[in-house]
Amino acid sequence: MFAKIDDTFSRPLRRATAATFLTLASSLFWSTPASAADESAYAAALRFVEEQQVGRNLPMMARKTISNTVTYRGMVSKLGQSKADRYVETELAGALPKYQPRWNETLAASYSKFFSADELNSLRREGKSSSVVPKLTRVWDELGREMKEQGASILVAYTSEALTAAFKKSADDGAR
C-alpha cells in the first residue's frame, strides 16, 4: 500500500479563507445520490476521503476561522494567547468527532460529482501515479468551489460550537 497522499487532494480547501467560509450561506445537507452509479461513486469517494484523510484539515481551518473572531481576540486579551489557545484546542478536539464524519461525507459528495467510482479507486490505490491525476488537476478550482459551498455550514457550526464552549469555560474559570 502506498503512503498517504500528501496535501495534493486537500489543496482546493486550503485555498479558501476563513472569512469566506463565514460569509457563505449554504445548505447543511448535500444532495443524495440519484442512481446506483452515483451511489457507487459516492461510496468510492467516501472511502478515498477517509483512507487518504482528505478532510484532516478541518481543525486547522476551524482554528484559522476562530482566530479571526472578536470573541477569540477578547479571550486572548483577557487570558493571554497560550491559555486562550488551550481552551479553544480543547473544545475543537471535543467537538471534532461530531463534525468530522459530516465533513468527510460532504467532501465525498463533492468528489463524487467530478469522478467515477473507478477514477476514485484509481486515485486511492495509485496516488500520484494514477492516470486520473491530470483530471484532478483540471477540476481543482471547480472542485474547491463545490467543497467550499457544501462544507461552509459545517465549518461554521463546528467553529461556533467550539468557540462558544471555550468562551463559556474561560469565563466560568475566570469567575472562580
TrEMBL record:
User: Do the record's keywords include Signal?
Assistant: yes
Instruction: Give the signal peptide, or none.
Output: 1-36
Q: Does the keyword Signal apply?
A: yes
Which keywords label this protein?
Answer: Signal
Query: Protein name, please?
Result: DUF2059 domain-containing protein
Question: Source species, please?
Answer: Achromobacter marplatensis
Lineage summary: Bacteria, Pseudomonadati, Pseudomonadota, Betaproteobacteria, Burkholderiales
